[in-house]
Amino acid sequence: MKRITSVLIAATIGLFAPIQNAQAAAEFNLRFAHFWPPQAGMSQQFKAWGDAVEKDSNGRIKVEMYPSQTLAKAPKIYDAVVSSIADVGATVQGYTANRFPLSQVIELPGIAESGALGSCVFQTLLDQGDIADEYSETHPLFVFTHGPGMIHTKGTAVKTPEDLKGLLIRRPTAVVADLLTGLGSQPVGMPAPQIYQSMSRGVIDGATLPWEGVKSFRLNELADNHTDINLYTLAFVVTMNKGTYESMPADLRQVIDKNSGLAWAVKTGQLMDEQDKVGLAQAKELGHTITTIEGGVENPAWKGVLEQATENYLSQNGATARSIYEKIPALSKNCRN
């Protein structure tokens, strides 16, 4: 993990090196839209990004946070950035189906065992140009993933794929929907902020989320069974309105550039990992049933179905998607070094 550690150190040092301009009133007020609740760890991470931008610009850029879908609903955040409703947005690529098929290769089973690693790999794919064309409508700042996405259910323990048959399980994206369908459940699409109400009303029997999401969206209050398997790692993007970025003078664009890329991707993935620990500890404290699938996605009861779902996705999305998938092991090795 030397590379991940080194970029985290670089990001920390960067926080204390603002550009040397005289203090002045804000020239740009950036509206930052996202869907996490204000108290969530991710909200604090985005605030830290805003604070860094404000400090590095000597106050010439101000960042106003709009959490909890207050500026745009989760599936509409990317388009809100495109249309200048928001200047910056953080969202899930797969909330708009078929728009980011190459980016969503990162969601396939077993790709990364942590948010920090997944984020390093994902950002490297963006930096190397493999997925850059999918973001041509905006100015992407960084991409990241959460840690392992798992299955969380109310009243039903899921130990084998057979236990999923007939269950209505929330899925975040079409990629995860295909995985769940192959395993025998009935996937129900919805963004994370809708899960609590849907489960409390019996609309769904469970949900797929990392432990971070279970904590952030209060699922430990409802789901009492958790199946620990690295089913997927969700793709996220923090992106900026292209016109807003291009209208800035060169020195302020440099501030944005400094607070973009690999360092912030890895820091955000690491925050996801830290929040995973908190969500898991909370479930244990509540006495929930946690089933760990031995061998994870390599477990014989799960492996065949998940491999087939992976092959189906790659076949549907062409040679470029397969090429990206095949280069991920080498990128993962590099990110660990």
UniProtKB/TrEMBL annotation:
Record key words, sorted: Signal
Domain of life, source organism: Bacteria
Residues annotated as signal peptide: 1-24
Biological processes, Gene Ontology terms: transmembrane transport
Gene3D superfamilies listed in its UniProt record: Bacterial extracellular solute-binding protein, family 7
Listed Pfam families: DctP
Coiled-coil portions: none
Protein's UniProt name: C4-dicarboxylate ABC transporter substrate-binding protein
Naturally occurring in which organism (per UniProt): Sedimenticola selenatireducens
